Amino acid sequence: MSENLARQFLLREDVVFLNHGSFGACPRPVFETYQRWQLDLERQPVEFLGRNLTETMRVPRIALSAELGCSSDDLVGLTNATTGLNIVAQSLDLKPGDQILTTDHEYSALEKTWAYVARRTGAEIVVVKVPMPLLTEAQFTDTIIAGMTERTKVLFLSHITSPTALLFPIERSIAEARKRGIWSVIDGAHTPGHIKLDLDALGADFYSGNCHKWLMTPKGSAFLHARPEVQNLLNPLVISHGWTIDSKQPGAKGAFGNSPFIDGIEMQGTRDPAPWLTVPAALDFRRDNDWTSVAAHCQQLAQDTASRLGELTGLAPLSASQFCAPQMVAMPLPECDVVAVKDALLDKYNIEIPVFKWQDTCIARLSVQGYNSRPQMDLLIGALTDLLGLTAGAKRQAS
């Protein structure tokens, strides 16, 4: 399976690419569609950007909404999830003393976003420590709810965490936030194409995710979803052609006939929309290659590899299996120089994989996608065994 699929990707053959989670990798047929869109744009820029763009942008929105379980009217195309979450964070009316509740597992770019918002508004960031290892849903949810106060205005959570590759069970936390009048803002950077989503059922106020990671579109393709009741709270980061002065009025239309939410954010003047326009092609590629089966195989390969490494290190996983992202796993390592290990994996073994320290834990974060294979996992285990002296370490622990 992996050999046939590997030929459909553009990754260098001399690199063992185990880091799909960072920027994704685009299949050749989807990339070719992307280039055709770019060529169409260059052949008649005025027609493409000036006359046809509103209708053209609607097509991927409709296709993606079916995949995400939501209305296409509640979805807008963006370049990345960080942009979507910045739109939300910088739009919400926060005041001194208001609290933004979040966890100690969030992505650093968004930690900085909320720090910026807090400095500008006087709001306070409250970080709860998720109990580790994460073994039960109640363990997570009870911790989040215990952090809510009368001053909590925003609940910000990752759905799948970047540093620890955990799949947080966020449903009850979102429901409780709604009951208390707390805005829920979800970082779904790793979720589209990785786990099954039903955004309407989830009920988060705001949810932003990347398509260029696990959905495998080209870089620069993402979305922001907002419930209809809260769309009027949002302002674009850049005011451009799609914005109208009455955008906050009930029943208002954007400058191009969509809602102010869509037109104000999506229609930003001159930019290359080609990555977003490939969403239908990426969905077709997944269907044509039975990606449900591919993903199940990748999940098994990821979990097997993590278990093998755990047997060598004697270190427990960060969570029970149901709270681990299906195709991405943060594997604890013995105390080590993480930069030296990461560099040696690339320089000596041609393995591209993130190795870093999160809090007090050294981690190698493994991503497994359809182009990866069991021999590549064997190579990784052998390389880590060599670099970390795991055979000797395992004997010492056994004694």
TrEMBL record:
What is the recorded name of this protein? Aminotransferase class V
Report a single Gene Ontology molecular function: transaminase activity
Organism equals Devosia yakushimensis
Pfam families per UniProt: Aminotran_5
Q: What PANTHER family does the database record attribute to this sequence? A: HERCYNYLCYSTEINE SULFOXIDE LYASE, L-CYSTEINE DESULFHYDRASE
Keywords (alphabetical) are: Aminotransferase, Pyridoxal phosphate, Transferase
- Domain Aminotransferase class V span(s) in chain numbering: 47-353
Does the keyword field hold tRNA processing?
Answer: no
Q: Does the keyword Transferase apply?
A: yes
